[in-house]
Design brief:
Elements (H helix, E strand, L loop, with lengths): L1 H24 L14 H17 L15 H36 L1
């Protein structure tokens, strides 16, 4: 009975999550209506300005700081350290409990 309850609740949760995220899947860059958002010409003008800005500062790179703490590699190392520390704490605690149970079984 509990297995079917778990499966049904998981299915219901998946349906709710899919219905909540469905509007995000249909987002469009350019809206279908008229006079809404940026036009193609405005978007192209902005892209040209960005290209000129990159040409003016050639050593700046793409703008994604890979090795800094706020970049890709830095954030990966920091989050890996945090979650790795949590994992090590759980393993140490589990070993302590296991050793205590083994000692209690020897005393019996």
């Amino acid at each position: 009975m509990t297995e079917t309850r778990i499966v049904l609740s998981g299915t219901l949760l998946a349906v709710f999550a899919a219905s909540a995220l469905m509007p995000l899947a249909f987002a469009q860059t350019y809206p279908q209506g008229s006079n809404t958002g940026m036009t193609l010409e405005q978007d192209l003008k902005l892209a040209r300005e960005r290209i000129e800005e990159v040409k003016a500062h050639p050593g700046a790179g793409s703008g994604t700081p890979y090795l800094s703490a706020s970049g890709v590699v830095g954030a990966t190392i920091i989050s890996g350290g945090i979650f790795g520390g949590i994992f090590v704490a759980f393993v140490v605690r589990a070993k302590q409990i296991e050793n205590k149970r083994a000692q209690d079984n020897l005393l019996r």
